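Fold it.
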Amino acid sequence: MRSIRILLLLVVVGAIAGIAVPNAKALGYEDEPCPPQPQLKVCHPNAEVGKNYSLPILGKGGCTPDSVVYAVVGGSLPPGLSVSSSNALVSGIPTQPGIYQFWLQVSDIPQWQGGASWCQDDKASQWQFQITVVQGLQIQQRQSVLTPAQLNTPYNMQLTTNGGSGLTWSVNSGALPAGLNLNASSGLISGTPTQAQDSTFQVKVTDGSRSDLQTYSLSVVQPLKITQPPLLASAAEVGLPYQLALKATGGRGTYAWTAEGLPAGLTLDTASGAISGTPTAAGVAPVKVTVTDALGLTNTLSVNLAVQAKLALEKSILPFAKTGARYNATLVKNGGVRPLKWSVIGLRSLPTGIKLNARTGRLSGVPLRAGTYRFRVQVTDALGARSSLSYTLKVNRGAARR
């Protein structure tokens, strides 16, 4: 966009050897280069929506260059533009198309010295101006940083405009990351990045008569991914302290974590990704964990966090046994996290011929001697929880063999 400058012809009046200048020069505006229409200065070129615009409008006359001020006293500037009071620079970024007319006033500030005015300020001068704002061709993606790409992962970024037909897209300067290309007719940036890098490039779009440029930065990083925790690590138990340290790789910078659906009693450290606390209720919770890196990349992992009830042996009466006869009975427990470990503790032991399966908690065997046996059993689960209970097993005398 070319700019037109209406030159200010200033008559700088000063004092030489203490001689005061009594009068200011007449205030006004230059007629050129705007068309000499009565009271209307139609100033070109047109402004375009969304693009920087600058039009210096300078007047003539006044006491000194610093004593002249400008102000809009009628009509309105295009939305997004403003005028400087010191030099009448109209600038900004227009936001709406249209034809805008406004009255610009130039006036003089009286100059004083020793309590008296040494320059008589002239009356203010006003003139009407017009700026036409057109809807230019513009790339809609105005952000300078594009969504980052991940190495060896397909990438797509669709660039669009506010209109136009027969568009041609090109990389005006710089270069796209290795493995990516810009479609000349559609404006789609796509491909599979083959190298981790940071790239800066300028994209140009044109319809033959209008064009727009936009500079972008695009980073290619290692894929951001949350490491799947071991199966046992996602098991918890009511009443036991729990901690699961989630890990992520790839991306860039520090990570920020969020989680949805955590069991009651557990919380997530948003900086480290550690889930910790003491569960208060049993159940299986489908937890959705998300990590975000410094570039805004995200990765989500679903973890079925199973909270088991507190481990406890269930009180039960063991069935009678008979000497010489096969015996089987399974001890019952509630809660806990497998695998379990069963053992007989204390000084007392099982009846001779009966054994306790350390994995299943099953009593089995052929008792050899009659009697009443009291013993204590302990079960330990995978998280270290323990429960113990005393049992009584009565062995009756079996029928004598012939």
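The chain has no helices and 37 strands.
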